[in-house]
Amino acid sequence: MSVQQIEQNVSEIMDLFRSVESDWEQLPLESIVQKIDRNSSVFTSVAYEAVSKLLAQKGIETNDLSEWKAFYDDYEDQYSSQLLIGLGWAIGISGYPSPSDFVIRFPKDKQQKIWDGIGYFYGLFRSRLTIRSRSLPEFASENIPEGFDAGIGRALYYHARGDFEKLTTLFSGFPEERKDELSQGIGTATVFVGGINDIEIKHLLQIISPFRDTFSKGVFNGIESRKNAGKTTPECQILEQELL
């Protein structure tokens, strides 16, 4: 495995997400889920995240999240984190000036992952603000919600696409007080993207060395999510061995 494998995996993840969005325009929900399960891969959780995002968008537009909640209840055991992150995507897309007014409707133990999804959206699609300028949207300018920077950290990893020198440049420009949670997001993304070998893991650990503990937290959160989904990979074992 190599840097090229990481880049290939990122592309596959993005293509899978777009594929679900395309199917959404043509197929009923039941058929989309059947297709996802039929084409099961190590990235299946990404497809469920996409469905969650689309259902939440629909619910936000109609002010009725009952369909999203039913979907969440059905698949919480396997894909809880991804479903909450998908909801965060939808909140970010909606342009809520104060997302906290929306997020606060949910149980406290779920709010962090929702904010992670909001941060991930802003990191991917508002990168000029959040990554190039290292600035924050107005709603987070005075108090960064817990989970938001984890989403930004995941976006950093996706933007780097296996180029660890680029990741170093992106990461190093952020204020020190934000790097703990950014590292956690990078750890989670490392697990979900995969394609990394033991040499590259050591390189990555050098980049985030002062923040190894929070990076490890993100890694183990990601591994737990993969285990819940029944989609562990060889990289999970490599990361566990390196960090334990």
First CA to last CA: what distance? Answer: 22 Å
Q: How much is the average pLDDT?
A: 94
List how many beta strands DSSP finds.
Answer: 0
- Backbone shape: globular
Sheet of most strands: none
Q: How many domains in all?
A: 1
Structural class: mainly alpha
- Strand fraction band? under 5%
Radius of gyration equals 17 Å
* Poorly predicted sequence stretches spanning 5 or more consecutive residues: none
Work out the helix count. 13
> Helicity, in percent?
over 70%
Q: What is the H/E order?
A: HHHHHHHHHHHHH
Pfam families: DUF1702
Brief characterization of the structure:
InterPro entries: DUF1702. Pfam families: DUF1702. The chain has helices spanning 3-24, 29-38, 44-62, 66-94, 100-103, 108-125, 127-132, 148-160, 164-172, 179-193, 198-207, 212-229, 234-243.
Please, could you describe this protein's structure?
The protein has helices spanning 3-24, 29-38, 44-62, 66-94, 100-103, 108-125, 127-132, 148-160, 164-172, 179-193, 198-207, 212-229, 234-243. The chain is mostly helical and 244 residues long. It has one domain (3-243). Helix 8 packs antiparallel against helix 9 (164-172). The radius of gyration is 17 Å and the shape is globular. The model has no long low-confidence stretch (mean pLDDT 94).
